[in-house]
């Protein structure tokens, strides 16, 4: 798959940093992704459809109206000046945080950043779609959620959000795994 025409849209995407999307200007611009390895097998097709539903429908709702979209390792574009002047991008440490991507979103939101999602541009992405790799990926995401429970960032975000935004944030992070377990 060729994405040259998507590269031509990059200038329009970067202009979104100068627009107001709510109270604050965006600090992370989220874009859709297309998993092009979905045609390898039926299992790969299932995983590709799962990713598509999360990256298009889920991200769209998390961004607007819920305003609880974080950075999930998708091909997002960061405002470098915003993040460097406010303590850096993420807490990337293999021992402390398994899932460092979402902590970048936490830091951006805690520092009054706005995280948006844009549908008019997409980026191609290939995944290793063997059954073992899919299970390892799901385990990594679940382990990262366990690390989120232990972090101070969740407490700080709970202090920052209003009641309804806090409930939306809970259901989209730790609450998903808690409800699944129950």
TrEMBL record:
<feature type="domain" description="Glycosyl transferase 48">
    <location>
        <begin position="1"/>
        <end position="181"/>
    </location>
</feature>
<dbReference type="GO" id="GO:0000148">
    <property type="term" value="C:1,3-beta-D-glucan synthase complex"/>
</dbReference>
<dbReference type="Pfam" id="PF02364">
    <property type="entry name" value="Glucan_synthase"/>
</dbReference>
<dbReference type="GO" id="GO:0003843">
    <property type="term" value="F:1,3-beta-D-glucan synthase activity"/>
</dbReference>
<dbReference type="GO" id="GO:0005886">
    <property type="term" value="C:plasma membrane"/>
</dbReference>
<protein>
    <recommendedName>
        <fullName>Glycosyl transferase 48 domain-containing protein</fullName>
    </recommendedName>
</protein>
<dbReference type="InterPro" id="IPR003440">
    <property type="entry name" value="Glyco_trans_48_dom"/>
</dbReference>
<dbReference type="GO" id="GO:0006075">
    <property type="term" value="P:(1-&gt;3)-beta-D-glucan biosynthetic process"/>
</dbReference>
């Amino acid at each position: 798959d060729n994405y040259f025409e998507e590269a031509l849209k990059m200038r329009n995407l970067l202009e979104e940093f100068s627009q107001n999307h709510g109270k604050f200007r965006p600090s992370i611009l989220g874009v859709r992704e297309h998993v092009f390895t979905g045609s390898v097998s039926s299992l790969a097709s299932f995983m590709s459809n799962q990713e598509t539903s999360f990256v298009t429908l889920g991200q769209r709702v998390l961004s607007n109206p819920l305003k609880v979209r974080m950075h999930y390792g998708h091909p997002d574009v960061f405002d470098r000046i915003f993040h460097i002047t406010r303590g850096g991008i993420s807490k990337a440490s293999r021992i402390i945080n398994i899932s460092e991507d979402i902590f970048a979103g936490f830091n951006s939101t805690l520092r009054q950043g706005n995280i948006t999602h844009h549908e008019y541009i997409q980026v191609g992405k290939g995944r290793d779609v063997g059954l073992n790799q899919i299970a390892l990926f799901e385990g990594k995401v679940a382990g990262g959620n366990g690390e989120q429970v232990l972090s101070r960032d969740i407490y700080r975000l709970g202090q920052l959000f209003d009641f309804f935004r806090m409930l939306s944030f809970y259901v989209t992070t730790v609450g998903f795994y808690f409800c699944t377990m129950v």
